[in-house]
Specification:
With 463 residues, this protein is α/β, with parallel strands linked by helices. Helix content is 37%, strand content 13%. Strand 9 (240-243), helix 8 (257-270) and strand 10 form a beta-alpha-beta unit. The chain is elongated.
């Protein structure tokens, strides 16, 4: 027989020494047959081949084979060799597999806010950037790394944020994190360690962000909200305030200049911190870009941004531009080693410095603007009682509904296979502002070819 026992892929776990070698080999073969590692009908190596593989006497193997033939585990016929007996297989019946967990039914049309068009991810350009970055990266770049993030990415971000968002920072004060939620978790721990107990938040915002703060032991208190956006001072008991100044989520209005000045003045007077969520600051359509609030006072504002809206959330890349007094504390709160993939960091750094990021953002801005315009036209034509607001920037719109209709519209949307959120699910439980009936419609998620169908489904459920 040409092939050796080793090539069959079965480890007998037999030590080729000692007085019990024959018994050990017999037991090992029997167990291999019983458990199904040697299937019925399998031809075993000749006693000469197996003995050579195991480094033992041929008679030892021949005697073990004879024992198992006598027990009925093996069969031996002249000219056909030794095989596992068909009737000798005693493999216990397989335990019925648990039914696979059913995945939640995917909606026919996903208009939930918060995700860009993943089909438009710049795969070819990203791959080119990854190849260039990996080709020149030193070996040490693949180590555990600086917990603040790779220097190449921090340097690229410092330049880009200054140029595109008016952020005043340097690479030493940038901390790379795995998205906004990770950054907020780090800041929550830092604030709690500094003695902060209350964080002021906007009356409307993502519940998951409030949960992250409460999970850090912090109380969240909503700020007043009116038609001009978020207003009012965080108050003397608040040690920090979380804001979306460039494009309030989900209402879609920018923080007005006088209110920007007021919250910065509050932070200077009280020593409080402003946490600025610039989640989609690159996407503006009908107005000049609104610069980052951080530019007004880099010592009192923590700027947070991510690649989740501009590229894809699956990259798990975000960043913070920190006040000088917080940079070391935040790095310590993050942990002693890097938690973000270095290859993704190096690729993003190359993507930014090569100009590919700017080109991608410009192309995405045009694509999303066309979708937004189509949304406005469709709603005006099919549902004239619905008012579209918050559309000067971003990846979502707020559709103001007739009073008392939000719940029924959301339910009708679910029946149509349309995933969409009502405004009430973003409202802080303690908010005092008057509740508004509205839908929050994301126009980033559907692919280009699916956008027309999504619009048609949406218009069917509007009052």
């Amino acid at each position: 027989m040409g092939e050796s026992w080793a090539t069959l892929g079965v480890d007998l776990h037999v030590e080729p020494t000692g007085p019990g070698l024959r018994r050990g080999l017999t037991n090992a073969l029997r167990e291999a047959v019983r458990t199904g590692r040697l299937a019925p009908g399998t031809r075993l190596p000749s006693s000469r081949s197996l003995a050579a593989d195991l480094g033992i006497a041929r008679n030892t193997v021949a005697d073990a084979y004879a024992d198992l033939v006598a027990e009925g585990w093996l069969t031996a016929r002249q000219g056909s060799g030794t095989r596992v007996a068909e009737r000798a297989s005693t493999t216990p019946p397989a335990v019925p597999a648990a039914p696979p967990a059913r995945e939640p039914a995917r909606p026919l049309h996903d208009l939930q806010p918060g995700t860009p068009d993943l089909a438009s991810f710049p795969r070819a350009e990203w791959l080119k950037a990854a190849r260039r970055a990996l080709a020149v990266a030193p070996h040490r770049a693949l180590g555990y790394g600086d917990p603040r993030g790779h220097p190449a990415l921090r340097g690229a971000l410092a330049g880009y944020l200054s140029r595109a968002r008016g952020v005043r920072t340097d690479p030493g004060r940038i901390l790379v994190c795995a998205g906004f939620s990770h950054g907020l978790t780090i800041l929550g721990a830092l604030l709690r360690a500094r003695g902060v107990r209350t964080v002021a938040v906007e009356s409307y915002g993502l519940p998951v962000h409030r949960k992250l703060l409460t999970g850090a032991g912090l109380r969240t208190r909503p700020l007043p909200f009116d038609e001009r956006g978020t207003g009012g001072e965080p108050g003397p008991d608040a040690g920090a305030v979380l804001l979306t100044p460039a494009h309030q989520f989900p209402m879609g209005v920018p923080l007005r200049p006088e209110r920007r000045a007021a919250v910065v003045d509050w932070a200077r007077r009280t020593g409080g911190l402003i946490l600025e969520d610039d989640y989609d600051g690159e996407f503006r359509y009908d107005r000049q870009p609104v610069g980052a609030l951080q530019g007004l006072d880099p010592d009192r504002v923590v700027y947070l941004g991510t690649a989740s809206k501009s590229l894809a959330p699956g990259l798990r890349l975000g960043w913070m531009a920190l006040p000088p007094a917080l940079a070391e504390e935040a790095a310590a709160a993050k942990g002693g080693s890097e938690t973000c993939g270095v290859l993704e960091q190096l690729t993003l750094a190359e993507f930014i410095t090569s100009g590919a990021y700017d080109r991608h953002v410009r192309a995405a801005r045009l694509r999303y603007r066309r979708r937004r315009d189509a949304l406005v036209r469709a709603v005006e034509a099919r549902a004239p009682e619905v008012r579209v607001t918050g559309i000067a920037a971003g990846l979502h719109a707020v559709l103001r509904l007739p009073p008392g209709t939000e719940r029924s519209v959301v339910q009708a949307a679910a029946w149509q296979g349309l995933a969409v959120h009502g405004l009430r699910c973003f409202r802080h439980p303690e908010a005092t502002a008057e509740a508004v009936d509205a839908l929050v419609v994301g126009y980033g998620t559907p692919s280009d070819h699916g956008w027309a169908g999504a619009l048609e489904a949406l218009c069917r459920v509007l009052p």
